[in-house]
Amino acid sequence: MLNRRDFVQLSLAAVSGLAATKLFAESKPRPVGVQLYTVREQAERDLPSVLAAVQKIGYEEVEPYWNVYDHPAPELRRMIADHGLRVPSGHFNYEGLASKLDYAQALGVEYVVCPMLPKDMWNSLDEFKRAAEQFNIWGEQVRQRSMQFGFHNHNYEFRRFGNTTGFETLMTRTDPKLVVLEMDCYWIVQAGQDPLKMFERYGDRIKLLHLKDRKPGFPTSQQLDEAAEHFTEVGAGNIDWKPILTAAEKHGVKQLFVERDSGDLDPIESIGISFDNLQKMLTRA
Fold first, then answer.
1. pLDDT given for residue 16 in this prediction
2. Domain count for the chain
3. What is the pLDDT, as a whole number, of residue 284?
4. Is 16 part of any domain?
């Protein structure tokens, strides 16, 4: 039978435990960003309004892309900051990327990401080798400016060339200190690959994630075309996000960006749904 002192001690411990549990459950999830290409039509008409809408949803970061770089870098950086947002990463096209490095530095990004190889480089292993050499050069130039270079995958890199793929060629022929990966989870799955196995193989070389979901019932492919587009909002498709997000935390992924190339819903509505679903996944309980 408990005496008064034991009862008080157990009661205090229980209250303390409940408080700790509540604090843990209510801890703020890590920041989530959005790739502005998702809302490109709106962004190219009225970028300040889009930034306001993004911030109102709850996003804290944005990843800009090539068509918003018609704003001078200091102006774009200020516009983003004025809406309470950060800009840790940006997409810069393969063609002319070197000419944009000063712009990227002035914009204040940490990561300079090449989103895609030119289409005429997709079907030759030699072209992937050439791209890898170029990535190493850009990686060193970017490092000299105190930033990090990375590339963003699609599904076309997983086409086989004998006993290898374009993706493997890019990863093995680039210096991990100079070139990191922004892993697009949708395109990994669409290519017939597993994001978790990517983490097992490449570990903390994966520094950024693109999060968009995939409608069930469609075949995988290594051809980048309309037949490969089965996009939906994060949490509304068949990608199992919780283990991916757990692996991202384990391997030190720095940035999470929601993206949707196209889809059935209005883009602003779409990123709102993805944000709400992600918050439930990211809030530890």
1. 41
2. 1
3. 57
4. no
Nearest residue to 121 (alpha-carbon basis) of 91, 159, 148: 159
Report the alpha-carbon distance of residue 156 to residue 196 in Å, rounded.
19
Question: In this structure, is residue 9 part of a structural domain?
Answer: no
Integer Cα distance of 257 and 90 in angstroms? 11
- Helix (H) and strand (E) counts in the chain: 11, 12
Structural domain contains residue 45: yes
For the chain, which ranges sit under pLDDT 70? 1-29, 284-285
Please report the pLDDT score of residue 283 as a whole number: 79
Backbone dihedral region for residue 72 (phi beyond 0: left; psi -120 to 50: alpha; all else: beta): beta
List of residues 6+ apart from 136 with CB closer than 8 A = 173, 174, 175, 178, 179
For 271, residues 6+ apart whose C-beta sits below 8 A from its C-beta are 34, 38, 39, 54, 57, 59, 258, 260
* Helix axis angle, 267-282 to 241-250, nearest 10°: 70
pLDDT at position 180, please? 98
Token readout for 202 is: 């490449």
What CATH number is associated with residue 110?
A: 3.20.20.150
Domain assignment present for residue 250? The answer is yes
Res 19: pLDDT:
37
Residues 6+ apart with CB under 8 A from 163: none
- For 162, the domain range is 26-282
pLDDT tens-digit series, residues 214-231: 999 999 999 999 999 999
